[in-house]
């Protein structure tokens, strides 16, 4: 019986050893090389400027008028990079701005990042808008130059305290006979580069 | 040490799928077969499992991929491998972990009626399943730029986890020469539970050529909830941040393990039937029951719709233009304390067996010496949140020596067509030791295996 027991035990250990034979070349240090590079697309500012809405009441036909600049100036909350985590792991942000115009006038769109206390920060961005060819025609499309506007990591670091954005549509003298609409559409593409 | 490391990596990395214990099922030399089929036809008169050691069961599974796919030292860039793996996996692939530890297990044959065998005990179980949240893995890894107009579905988020102890008492009766029937009553004592299933809704970035802006970001029909029981009170402990926080958690766990937490009831039933002298069939249902979560319950639920299309300038309406406030208002996260009940994952087993080669090697003082060989076919099903899991096995049972009995299984399931399992059981005097593992062909490289299940234990059997 003793030999049998020994035999059984030996068999057992053999079975265990075979059972727990090991794991082939795994390299968990590869984790250091993991980089997440998602690209997130998010809407940015938009606007619609219809000439008809801005003609002062009682203006006779074919009369020149101006729109008070403060009406088309605005400051909105926009937390560009959010947190320190975001700035450390953002490769760049690309702003794509597309302006379609059917008004037979040229405009300028300006925007500027501001701190929480509304101090300007970074550069003033100015985008000329080409004149359109009138109501009912195919809109003339203008883009920023360069297109897109690239906020690289160095620029983002300057803009780290940006909490607001000031925008203004600079409108030339208009005529009460003018018709047409100016559409501003834009998006921000966030290029993340996150190393584990 | 090497074994430990291998086991840890193997279990962490390799992945299987269910609580299928194909080698142990209907292995009637072992009292643990009564835990899988309370109607198993057993022939011993008394058993005691060595406390804490009578059954140690571990099962880890990953349907869809293996750790080797990502961490192989093959010179390829890990980021490519991760991307490939994410692309290969679907939201029906999952990770599971089941661990069971028998704390006490014993049984005895009734003195009044020799056809009745009682068994009882207490075991602890950890059961976890998490489906691969493919859409959100893609969103995190690639972003939404390449997925405009493609919904990221909240239904991808599906996971449940439970840590509990089970008190059980089983009754096994040989009704006649042919039929043995058994049932086991179970009392579940839940230590911790979370579940997030049946989530609906989606997040989509839609391109809107005619819209106000380039895109519309839409959360539509969202209804996402996480039910927890046993979590809220732990969170309070954590926030105190005491040095003895861990001790307090452990004390709470122990209290709940001993019926101090959420309770439930369930039953196992099963039978064995001899078609003739050599053919037999068996069947069982396990964990037909539910747990009622009434104590320490917290459910987090977010419901609603939301659309965002950028910041309008100049602001024309009374829009606050604070998108986060708007989002919170549109899709508030509610914390509820409503009780809930959840079914235990029901498991079904069935088998047909042909026994042959009756042989008395001189150790059996019996009229009918035991069959030395048997082969047959087994099926297993387990109900899971998204869909049941199935497995089918061919098996061969062999009494090599009176003290050495084995069972070899070949199993086909969702993941593998070459899952070979082996159980070895030694019976030396009254002392029994058994060890079983499946997917043994994969042990030469555990990391590439998608599922590993190991059981082992010591018993005293008479």
Rounded to an integer, what's the Rg of chain B over CA atoms?
26 Å
Number of strands of chain B: 22
Low-confidence stretches of chain A: none
Which percent band covers the strand fraction of chain A?
Answer: 35-45%
Secondary-structure content class of chain B: alpha+beta
- pLDDT averaged over residues of chain A: 85
Structural class of chain A: alpha+beta
Helical segment tally of chain A?
4
Determine the N-to-C terminus distance of chain A.
59 Å
| Succession of helices and strands of chain A | HEEEHEEHEEEEEHEEEE
Subunit arrangement of the protein? heterodimer
Q: How much helix, percentage-wise, in residues of chain B? A: 10-25%
Beta-strand fraction estimate of chain B: over 45%
Continuous helix count of chain B: 8
Q: Segments of chain B where pLDDT lies below 50 for 5+ residues?
A: 1-17
**Which whole number gives the mean pLDDT of chain B?**
85
Report the count of strand segments of chain A: 14
Name the chain pair whose interface involves the most residues.
A-B, 55 and 61 residues
Q: Report how far apart the termini of chain B are.
A: 35 Å
Largest sheet of chain B: 21 strands, antiparallel
Q: What do you see in this structure?
A:
The complex is a heterodimer of chains A (196) and B (462). In chain A, the strands form 4 sheets. In chain A, strands 2, 3, 6, 9, 10 and 13 form a 6-stranded antiparallel sheet that branches. Chain A has a 4-stranded antiparallel sheet with strand order 5-11-7-8, with no helix packed on it. In chain A, 24% of the residues are buried. Chain A has 4 helices and 14 strands. Helices cover 17% and strands 41% of the residues of chain A. The longest helix of chain A is centred in the N-terminal third of the chain and has 18 residues, at 2-19. Chain B has 462 residues and is α+β, with helices and mostly antiparallel strands. Helix content of chain B is 16%, strand content 49%. Chain B is built from 8 helices and 22 strands. Chain B has helices spanning 2-13, 33-36, 67-71, 78-88, 134-142, 232-240, 245-260, 323-330, and strands at 46-49, 56-62, 94-109, 116-131, 152-153, 159-174, 179-196, 200-207, 215-229, 262-274, 279-293, 297-308, 311-312, 333-336, 340-343, 347-358, 371-382, 389-401, 404-413, 419-428, 431-437, 451-461. Chain B has a 21-stranded antiparallel sheet that branches. In chain B, helix 6 runs antiparallel to helix 7 (245-260). Chains A and B meet through helix 1, strand 1, strand 2, strand 3 and strand 5 of A and helix 1, helix 3, helix 4, helix 5 and strand 9 of B. Strand 3 (45-50) of chain A pairs parallel with strand 13 (311-312) of chain B.
């Amino acid at each position: 019986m003793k030999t049998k027991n020994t035999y059984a035990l030996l068999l057992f250990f053999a079975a265990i050893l075979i059972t727990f034979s090991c794991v082939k070349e795994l390299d968990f240090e590869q984790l250091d090389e993991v980089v997440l590079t998602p690209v997130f697309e998010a809407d940015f500012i938009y606007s619609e400027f219809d000439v008809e809405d801005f003609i002062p009441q009682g203006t006779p036909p074919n009369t020149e008028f101006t729109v008070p600049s403060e009406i088309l100036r605005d400051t909105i909350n926009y937390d560009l990079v959010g947190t320190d985590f975001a700035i450390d792991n953002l490769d760049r942000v690309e702003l794509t701005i597309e302006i379609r115009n059917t008004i037979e006038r040229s405009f300028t769109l300006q925007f500027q990042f501001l701190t929480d206390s509304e101090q300007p920060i970074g550069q003033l961005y100015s985008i000329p808008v080409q004149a359109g060819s009138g109501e009912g025609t195919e809109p003339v499309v203008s883009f920023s130059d360069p297109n897109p506007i690239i906020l690289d990591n160095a620029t983002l670091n300057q803009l780290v305290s940006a909490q607001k954005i000031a925008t203004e549509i600079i409108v030339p003298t208009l005529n009460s006979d003018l018709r047409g609409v100016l559409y501003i559409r834009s998006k921000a593409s966030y290029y993340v580069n996150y190393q584990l | 040490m090497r074994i430990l490391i291998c086991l840890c990596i193997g279990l962490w990395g390799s992945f299987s799928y269910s609580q299928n214990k194909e080698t142990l099922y209907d292995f009637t030399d072992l009292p643990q077969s009564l835990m899988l089929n309370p109607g198993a036809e057993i022939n011993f008169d008394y058993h005691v499992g060595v406390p804490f050691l009578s059954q140690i069961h571990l099962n880890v599974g990953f349907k869809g991929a293996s750790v080797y796919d990502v961490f192989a030292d093959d010179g390829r860039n890990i980021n490519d491998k991760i991307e490939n793996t994410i692309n290969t996996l679907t939201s029906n692939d999952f990770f599971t972990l089941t661990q069971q530890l028998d704390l006490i297990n014993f049984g005895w044959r009734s003195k009044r009626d020799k056809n009745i065998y009682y068994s009882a005990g207490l075991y602890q179980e950890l059961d976890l399943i998490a489906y691969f949240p493919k859409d959100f893995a893609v969103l995190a890894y690639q972003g939404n730029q390449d997925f405009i107009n493609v919904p990221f579905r909240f239904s991808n988020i599906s996971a449940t986890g439970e840590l509990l102890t089970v008190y059980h008492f089983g009754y096994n009766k040989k009704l006649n020469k042919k039929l043995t029937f058994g049932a086991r009553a179970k009392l579940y004592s839940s230590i911790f539970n979370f579940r997030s299933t049946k989530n609906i809704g989606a997040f989509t970035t839609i391109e809107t050529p005619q819209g106000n802006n380039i895109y519309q970001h839409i959360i539509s029909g969202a209804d996402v909830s996480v039910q927890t029981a046993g979590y809220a009170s732990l969170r309070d402990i954590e926030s105190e941040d005491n040095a003895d926080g861990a001790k307090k958690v452990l004390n709470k766990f122990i209290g709940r393990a001993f019926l101090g937490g959420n309770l439930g009831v369930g039953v196992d039933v099963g039978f064995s039937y001899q078609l003739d002298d050599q053919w037999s069939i068996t069947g069982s249902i396990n964990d037909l029951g539910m747990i009622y979560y009434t104590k320490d319950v917290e459910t987090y639920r977010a419901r609603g719709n939301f659309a965002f299309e950028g910041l309008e300038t100049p602001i024309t309406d009374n829009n606050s233009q604070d998108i986060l406030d708007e989002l919170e208002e549109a899709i508030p996260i509610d914390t509820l304390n409503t009780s809930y009940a959840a079914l235990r994952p029901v498991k079904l087993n069935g088998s047909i067996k042909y026994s042959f080669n009756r042989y008395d090697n001189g150790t059996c003082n019996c009229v009918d010496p035991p069959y030395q060989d048997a082969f047959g076919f087994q099926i297993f099903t387990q109900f899971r949140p998204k869909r049941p899991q199935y497995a089918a096995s061919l098996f061969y049972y062999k009494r090599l020596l009176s003290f050495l009995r084995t069972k070899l299984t070949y199993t086909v399931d969702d993941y593998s067509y070459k899952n070979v399992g082996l159980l070895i059981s030694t019976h030396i005097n009254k002392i029994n030791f058994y060890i079983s593992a499946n997917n043994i062909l994969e042990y030469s490289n555990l990391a590439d295996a998608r599922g590993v299940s190991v059981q082992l234990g010591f018993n005293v059997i008479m």
